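can u pls check wat happens w/ nickel (II) ion
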Amino acid sequence: MSGVETLFNNLWLQYTAINPQAEAIHQLLTERGETVVNDHIAIRTFNTQKLGIDSIAQVFVDLGYVKKDAYDFSSKKLNAFHYEHPENPNHPKVFISELQVEAFSEEVQEIIKKLDDQVDVTAPFESDFIYSGRPWELTFDDYIRLLQESEYAAWTAAFGYRANHFTVSINHLTTFFDIESLNDFILNNDFAMNESGGLIKGTPEQLLEQSSTMAPLVNLAFSDANHLVPSCFYEFAKRYPMDSGRLYQGFIAASADKIFESTDAK
Ligand code: NI
């Protein structure tokens, strides 16, 4: 396995360990004869000096990834970039977002500072940090305080460093013509899907259609007690060709804005 393949394999093992739903869907597709190709993963972080996008991206940059387009999610107070591997376009894209910490209340800023203070300044540059989970102690009380202002902040504090989702590339499937038929397959197998902004986010004209499951609840250990909280989800993406004939490789901010809600508590 190449360095990139090993990294994504470790991310997948960590992701499916708390999200058996993704493993089950992957298995159902494999049983149909499909070979599942991953379009992208997404990672969440805080925009502190230590934990901002550039720090978190370094492990990917070291493996040949380059920073591409920027995205701004003003209503959720997030910034994001996506990264591609120019030498091997078959490597999954990486979408990294960060919470604009300074845009939140003093109380939220203090909780995030408390988390950030527990991370060693060099830790984000270690090769296994990105799949190391939560590198700080978090009480359930602080989780709830974060949740009151930002679902994203609460999720990031609770789950730390891991793939928030993997994404099935519909373009690489051979038994589904479109995203509608894949969605039907997922729903018929009794998985709940994110309907915020409609089941399908984006249009062929925007060159990207996406849908996702809703993150199932997992029994997560906080420093004081265990609680059921929304975990990770599985995403499905179909890309369309640009005028050049190449498939569009970017993301649609309006669609991603709704995809973020796949980890909202119902
Ligand atoms: Ni995504």
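The mean pLDDT is 96.
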